[in-house]
Amino acid sequence: MKLAIVVLAAGQGTRMKSATPKLLHPLAGVPLVGHVLATARELDAAHVIAVVRHGRDQLAPVIEGVLPGVLLVDQDEIPGTGRAVEQALAALPDDFVGDVLVLNGDVPLLDADTIRGFLAAHREQQTAASILSAVYDDPTGYGRVVRNETGAFQRIVECRDASADELRISEINAGIYAFGVGELRDQLANLTANNDQGEKYLTDIIGLLRARGSEVAAVPVAESWLVAGINDRAQLSDTAARLNALIVRGWQLNGVTIDDPATTWIDLAVTIEPDVTIHPGTQLKGATVIARGAEIGPDTTLVDCEIGANARVRRSDATLAIVAAEATVGPFSFLRPGTVLGADGKIGAFVETKNTTIGAGSKVPHLSYVGDATIGEHSNIGAGSVFANYDGVNKHHSFVGSHVRTGSHGVFVAPVRIADGVYTGAGTVVRQDVPAGALAVNIAPQRNIEGWVGKFRAGTDAAAAAAAAAETSGTN
Ligand code: UD1
Ligand code: CA
Question: How far are the Cα atoms of 39, 327, 342 from residue 283, in angstroms, in the given order?
Answer without folding.
Answer: 25, 20, 23
